[in-house]
Write a structure and sequence with these properties.
3 helices; 6-stranded antiparallel sheet; mainly beta
Amino acid sequence: MHPLRLMPLAVLLAACTACGDKATLEVSDGTGANPRLPPPNKTLLPTVNVAPAKGWAEGGLPTATTGTQVKAFAEGLDHPRWLYLLPNGDVLVAESNAPASDGGFSLKGWIAGKVMEKAGARTPSADRITLLRDTDGDGVADLKTPFLENLHSPFGMALVGGDFYIANADALVRVPYQEGQTRIDATPQKVTDLPAGINHHWTKNVIASRDGTKLYVTVGSNSNVGENGLEMEQGRAAIWEVDRASGTKRLFASGLRNPNGLAWEPETGALWTAVNERDEIGSDLVPDYITSVKDGGFYGWPWSYYGQHVDERVEPANPDMVARALVPDYALGPHTASLGIAFGKGGALPDFQNGLFVGQHGSWNRRPHSGYKVIFVPFKDGKPNGEPVDVLTGFLDADGNAQGRPVDVMLDARGALLVTDDVGNKVWRVTSTAQ
């Protein structure tokens, strides 16, 4: 055993905590179109403030905002992450976790692994997509069955015609699908490879263009700020455009440290994404964000953040790339780990029509915690407009333990909001109290 592995986790975490910092601003200060960005505060060791994964007590529920109610749509899942709605109303959920790392041993990586383990993010991957069906219309799935198994850390999903696409950690693959099918046993066929390797950020999402000719695939970075070498970042921190007919791909947008959620804005037709920004320069930096994605756009990573704010840790510097960096549309607060997004238009929640739902998985690099909730960002004329509204809270208990952690958000066939919870191992369903 490596000698460092004999060191108690508590000692390492205590050391990190002792050298960390505490936020001087509110999360709201780092939220909106013009977030406050204080000077970086790089400490000897990063701030580590983990919300230990506890799970929900029997009958426990998140807190739904006024005018809404919440109940479990499905329970007993294995680290549910991403959602997809099939045309017949069936709900698919990817039960998945990180693949084994190819990066070898490092002290920083080992500590990070232990931190994630404490947060409930180091269980073996189920490598499965499960089908959930509510046959009697009571808002609870009464059919839960394996839909597709033996995948490789699956995450995003997309259906175009009879082709069902899955974004695995290392490749975009495809299987045939017929409406109403509850299980697929066909062997997935590779469409295109996706950057893998160390897989610091393993989650890959996919969305189809409106006309079905293109697929857009997210690929996160292999590091925090390029510390594993920029040669390890080729094709990463980006969104790729894949041609369905040929399987060829091109970089659509880059400099996005860890893009996850993807959605088409209903008025303008623009592609939007949610991005997790960098860590380890203080509890107040850097805000995660949502932004419309410009074809050919560069968003700063690793050389700068939130536009052209230079990150001095990155060597060599690259002023030319910094000068190209676009400013994101809307900040979501530092270290909130904002993941899934879904526009509310056409849903069954009357107060949440014009805007974007965001699942915030929650912080580990901020004191006090941030995220651990689902919010709604109001939109007007295709752009964010106003302060975010809390939709689902209560994922942290009074002692700072994580009863649950929101991941993805999606409207179901009846317009209710579904939310995956990878600590509670549930899918929550939020409806109007008027229903």
